[in-house]
Amino acid sequence: MDLTTRYMGLKLKNPIIVGASPLTATVESIQELEKNGAAAVVLHSIFEEQINHEMHEIDHFLFHGSEDYAEALGYFPEVTLSNLESEHYLDEISKLKKCVNIPIIASLNGVSKGGWIKYATKLEDAGVDALELNITYIPTDIELSSREVESLYLETVDAVLQSVNIPVSIKMNAVFSAPANMAKQFCDLGVKGLVLFDKPVHVDIDLDVLNSLQNIHYSSSKDLSETLRWSAILYKRINASICASTGVKNHEDILKSMMSGADAVEMVSAILENGVEHIQKTLQDLESWMINKEYDSIEQMKGSISLSHTSNPAAYERANYMRVLTDYTH
Amino acid sequence: MSITITIDANEAVARVAHKINEVIAIYPITPSSPMAELSDVYSMKGERNIFGSLPEIMEMQSEGGASGAVHGSLQTGALTTTFTASQGLLLMIPNMYKIAGELSPTVFHVAARSLAVQALSIFGDHSDVMGVRQTGFALFSSVNAQEAHDFALISQDATLRSRIPFLHFFDGFRTSHEVSKIELIDIEIMKQMIDEKLVHAHRKRALSPDNPFIRGTSQNPDVYFQGRESVNSYYDKLPDILQKSMDTFAALTGRAYKLFDYSGEADATKVIILMGSSCDTVEETVRYLSEKNEKVGLIKVRLYKPFSLKHFIQVLPKTTEAIAVLDRTKESGSLGEPLYLDVVSALTELKEEEKLELMPKVIGGRYGLSSKEFTPSMVKAIFDELDKEKPKNHFTIGINDDVTHTSLEFDDSFSVADEQTFRGMFFGLGSDGTVGANKNSIKIIGEETQNYAQGYFVYDSNKSGSMTISHLRFGKKPILSSYLIERANFVACHQSVFLEKFDILKHAQQGATFLLNSPFSKDMVFAKLPQVVQEVIIKKELKFYVIDAAKVAKQSGMGRKINTVMQTCFFAISNILSKDEAIHKIKKSIEKTYGKKGKQIVSMNFLAVDNTLANLYKVTVPETTQGKIQMRPLIKGDFNDFVEEVTAKLIAGEGDSIPVSAMPSDGTWQSGTTQYQKRSTALEVPVWDPNVCIQCNKCVLVCPHAAIRSKVVEEPLLNNLPEDFLYTKAKGKTFEESEMFTLHVAVEDCTGCTLCVEVCPAQNKSQTNLKAINMSSQEPLRKRGSELWDAFTKLPAYDRSKLDHEKAKETQFLEPLFEFSGACPGCGETPYIKLASQLFGDRMIVANATGCSSIYGGNLPTTPWRKNSEGRGPAWSNSLFEDNAEFGLGFRLAIDKHTHNARETLLSLKDELGEEFTSLLLDANQKDENGIFAQRQRVKELKEKLNLIQGDSASRLEELADYLVKKSVWMIGGDGWAYDIGYGGLDHVLASGKNINILVLDTQVYSNTGGQQSKATFTGAVAKFAAGGKPQIPKDLAMMAIAYGDVYVARVAMGASDSQTVKAFVEAEAYDGPSIIIAYSHCVAHGYDLRYGMQHQKLAVDSGLWATFRYNPVLRDEGKNPMIVDYKEPKIDVKNFMYQETRFKMVEKLDANNAKTYLQTARDHAKENYKRYKNLERSMQPQEEN
Predict the structure, then answer these.
(1) Which CATH number does B259-408 carry?
(2) Which CATH architecture does the domain made up of B683-798 adopt?
(3) Domain span including residue A74
(4) Cis before residue A197, ω within 30 degrees of 0?
(5) Using CA of residue B1097, residue B1101, residue B1105, residue B1108, what is the dihedral sign?
């Protein structure tokens, strides 16, 4: 059975990429993932805030209170800090590349055109095979128009693309007015992959402390719906690979993703819930299903139920939604 | 080719000392600490000495300990040194005698500093080194950083050759901290200077079981004397040996020195003789006067002890008719100060030996004590005095002695300043980076241009909101001005608020450049200045530039750090370098300075440089003043003449003008003067919302500066107050329906730390980001806030006897008798001190160890300890660092004696006073507030009765009667005192059984001297002398105290439990025996925003790293369990506490493996400790009687 697939020009032995998570935080756990069949990993994210904050914070507190009082011109010894978090991340990548054979995708999380973009180059130099860019931005400024927000995204992506030669994917969120057009614009800039979609961070309110907070829930297969819709819509209409993310829990979700038009999937919650062996089991189930249904390869099924190939295109469109409502009211 | 570098003398010495020693045993003391700290960093970085080994640096528990370790190391054959100053040097005296007596070669490097006499002073003079001149050490003085660098090497060679130990000294601060351009000694030259054969000879003399002998015997009258005389020949040879070392050094480096260096006219008739940094000032003046054909000269004394007549006479001009010998020390009761006496003796002996033709007249004078300015105008006055037929002997210069009339007058308009030399003064806020930026600038100028450069930095007395003044000189000629700039051709004011408080432009000379950081545009800024400042700008025709540095810093991602912006402005305006070159050099220096903190910081600073030039404007100065803005008053309130005539001048920076007659002669000062000094340093201050407030008083409790207070008063008292005087119905069973709760903020005294907001548990129900107390901009609130505060302070305090003193909330209605100190914003120590003052202040006597608490507690100009409306309050004193427990015990002994005498006398007057009344006085229960109040009333009655009784007993009892009322003796200090230097005494006091109370403000480092590790430092914390993180677990002082059985012991953390803290204070004070409270105190040295200090305290306790418990012997006597573990089993991992603070987090950035190990050690320690304390608690549970 041929489970291989191509994603952003990278040849994967199967469609399962383990997404950015604690699972991909150490060399040891990545080796374990590889052993259990993962085709690639996206490293735990490094955030723009993290890169900037770490430097600022240490600088601030080493400086704070110094040259203030004659007896205490500083409160810390003059040492050279070398093992900064962001630099540590680079060292880990170099180590990792020596220990595993599967492609390594680095995840960079930020939203401005600041100095952190230079970090993309460093990641490339450290040896990652591709870069996944997470640029989810919550436009709280009421004066900021959708066009300005889109420009912000495009400028950031462009700046990253200018600074590296490795393939870059975008982990999109689905809340654009025109997601398909946005995807196209990303791809026109040179983005090689679209990860559909970024898992939403849920907002909640803690009634004990009377404060707002963020929650991250495990995704479920139900969360796959939007991913299926947009991969089906974008299939063959953009010059980039598609990776289904959020809600890929089992072999059926993989099959659906592939058929809607994805080239690979990112899986996290199911592995966190069931352990790394879940990858192996999913691959076995996938293979069994394909044998049963007499499929030869993943490539064979890719996009087979996309918008242009489905016998029921309305399922992906608004009309479908209307009919569901109508059916419900009757 | 030699390398030049711009550094201070501390660094100049450390760079040599570390290279030519094997063991360095030290104890931190200002201003010498940087020498040791740098040595530690060099060793940590793996820098080896000239013998190829890594010097071992050992921080000891005291200077006494350091000198003992040095002595031991020398006796065992290692090249060993130490660095110290002031009291530290005094503590080394016993070992110095031993080291000299045993002819052990070593060099002690001393940044000479005043001694604690009528007051402590951290500043420079020769009192300390003069205090050890009898020990047998050679005293060797350097004048500036270059000489300090050179003499560190020369003295090492000479000590190895002569076997006489050396004390190499230079002036504290003026030299130790003055940054100047020096030529570095190449390592090869060091190797050539230090003869390894002499090192081997030193090693051969070492104690060794392979070559056993005995040294340090006990000698008897038969031989001791001869033994003392046996060393004479070594001292006789020393001057020639040292001169030879100097000559060898000169051959290698081109820098030639003599034991006595003469400078001036060869046929001078008037000569000044002195030592230390002021030699340069005298030389500068001599050069100036010589050009005016005056026959003047000076002799710089390099080798003071042994004093070489031979070398002295070689340099003294034969034409000398009059000599002034200047001593930077004072010896009360002596015929003269030491150098003067030695010169007189020398001249007398030389005359007798007929080596001196003309006996000059000689006068001696004192100058420059505690870094008092010594300027060319004073030098001129001394030379002028020598012209008189009967010049004043034993004179003083630089002060106005209007009591014993020792002082010489001087004309302060006299100046020798070279007009071609740049003289810039920069006024900055302690935390804004001005000093750091200026240090960078002077390095750039010194190292990147042909200019000579000098930088000297003056700091404020306060630790919060303090003003720094940087004095920068540079020019084509060598800079000999070892005094502050008097007339500047460049003045920069980095905080515009200073212009409203201080006469900054008085330093600007005619036509000088003035750079101001102001939020106002070039068109508006002039009108926003106080009128008097405008007048000066117009009159002095200043070239006025303005920049909104805060805006540029913010734009560049630098937050409030304006240092790089202001530095760029300075270079842009001063034209020292071309614009492009200056920018290039600044960026290069930024890379050098910040490179170790990551590239992000570097690029942020680069951006600030680029943004600056576009925002720097020249202001067109109008011909007339605009607006009527007045200077702000520096003091306010109902103060007495002393405050007006003395304190106010100190605050205004005019302390130099205070005459001797205005000074208390025994060190006694009026307390409670911080209330008059309105510093207004906060950008934001808290504002109270009575509708949200739950009246918990937590904000009042945690306020480090007592700037938030609450009162409960009867409503009618509030009726006549203005409408915006906020209050609400008082909550709680203690209060009546008619009583109102009001809470106010001293807007001008608040430092804006925000601890109060963070600790407030109440939330606004309609807007949950608001609490019952919220920060708001200070400026608009200041005037009205000050008026409301005045009204608030006039309201009566609540009846103390009606309040429950064990309830944290109710303690906060007690009047604090410690307020508005100069402690850091967010200080973690002062809330405990304030609490003690609230609970026991009216009967408290405090012995305060030297450290942060003695500085914010007693550093002039103003002091925070005050008295209540009845005139009672804490009596406070600071003796030393090391003796505080003993000092406090002395209080107890004296008070107990007075009480004993009072009781005996009372008994003897029983018949006259009545038996019942006498018994009431003698048997009074004074365990609580009501008991003490009742006793005070009885004593009042007693005094009235005594007035009617004749006889000595009655008058004696009248004098002692107040001792019938309980006095609460407290010893306060930090962990440096309690765990390290003062531990021996503290331990003894704990064992004494006496009724004393010890409060240890445990910040886990030496906070006052800049974060050196103590035995309280946590595992895995970075501190000076634990630069890679401390591997060991902290000492458990509490358990050591518990071991005595009859000591009350508590470990508290206010942020974890204020009720436990208050209980501990009350129980400790009530216990009739020794008590110790060890209080977790967050500190700026921990490296996080101190607004979260109380939360961090809680994390420390929740993680188990700070155990809270109480051991109360009273409970044991009552048949109960004396041990109460107050904290719960650790519920969070230590990492959740540790990695919130830079001190711990840094380790991960230095060595990840060490970080892991330390974390595990800390984790185990937290778990084991809990187990240990709980086991102890269980083991002390009284057994049930069967």
Answers:
(1) 3.40.50.920
(2) 2-Layer Sandwich (3.30)
(3) 5-329
(4) yes
(5) positive
pLDDT at A320 over 60: no
Residues in A touching B1011 (Cβ below 8 Å) = 72, 74-76
- pLDDT at res. B1184: 65
User: Are A59 and B433 in contact (CB < 8 Å)?
Assistant: no
User: Does CATH place domain B425-618 in 3.40.920.10?
Assistant: yes
CATH of the domain at A61: 3.20.20.70
Indicate the residue of B38, B45, B1009 with minimum beta-carbon distance to A71. Answer: B1009
User: What's the fold here for domain B4-210+225-252?
Assistant: Rossmann fold (3.40.50)
Give the CA count within 13 Å in the CB-facing half-sphere of A206: 9
Interaxial angle between packed helices B599-613 and A48-63, expressed in degrees from 0 to 180 and rounded to the nearest 10: 80
- The answer to whether the Cβ–Cβ distance between A71 and B1008 falls below 8 Å is yes
| pLDDT on residue B928 | 86
Separation in Å, CA of A59 to nearest CA in chain B: 6
Show the CA angle centred on residue B524, arms to residues B523 and B526, nearest 5°: 95
pLDDT higher than 60, residue A319? no
Using CB atoms, which residue from B763, B1008, B1022 is nearest to A77?
B1022
What pLDDT band is residue A48 in, cutting at 50, 70 and 90?
Answer: low
Specify the amino acid at residue B266: A
**B937 Cβ neighbours under 8 A, 6+ residues apart:** none
B764 is catalytic: no
Cα angle at B271 between B265 and B276, to 5 degrees? Answer: 105
At residue A329, the pLDDT reads 40
What is the 3-class SS of A64-121, one letter each residue? CCCCCECCECCCCCCCCCCCCHHHHHHHHHHHHHHHCCCCEEEEEECCCCCHHHHHHH
Determine whether B63 is an active site residue: yes
What one-letter code names the amino acid at B465?
G
Q: Does residue B338 have a cis bond before it (omega within 30 degrees)?
A: no
Q: Contacts for A148-156 with beta carbons within 8 Å, 24 or more apart?
A: A150/A176, A150/A182, A150/A185, A152/A111, A153/A182, A153/A186, A154/A185, A154/A186, A154/A189, A155/A113, A156/A110, A156/A111, A156/A112, A156/A113, A156/A117
Annotated catalytic residue B1108: no
Domain boundaries, chain B: 4-210+225-252, 259-408, 425-618, 633-657, 683-798, 968-1179
Residue A219 pLDDT class (50, 70, 90 cuts): confident
pLDDT digits (tens, 9 = 90+) for B758-806: 999 999 989 989 999 999 999 999 999 999 999 999 999 999 999 999 9
How far apart are the C-alpha atoms of A221 and A231, rounded to whole Å? 16
Question: What is the spatial distance between Cα B746 and Cα B937, in angstroms, rounded to a whole number?
Answer: 34
CA angle, residues B67, B68, B73, in degrees to nearest 5: 95
Angle at B518 between CA B513 and CA B519, to 5 degrees: 150
Give the pLDDT of residue A77: 86
Res B736: pLDDT:
95
Longest distance between any two alpha carbons in chain B, whole Å: 104
A321 touches chain B (CB under 8 A): no
Residue A39, amino acid: A
H-type alpha helices, B632-680: 641-642, 648-651
As beta bridge partners, residue B729 has B740
Structure confidence at residue B328 (pLDDT): 98
| The domains spanning B259-408 and B683-798 adopt the same CATH topology | no
Q: What is the CA radius of gyration of chain B?
A: 32
ipTM of the complex model: 0.86
| Nearest beta carbon to residue A81 from set B431, B1143, B1146 | B1146
Q: Do B824 and A51 touch (CB under 8 A)?
A: no
- Render pLDDT for B928-970 as a digit per residue (tens, 0 to 9): 888 999 999 999 999 999 999 999 999 999 999 999 999 999 9
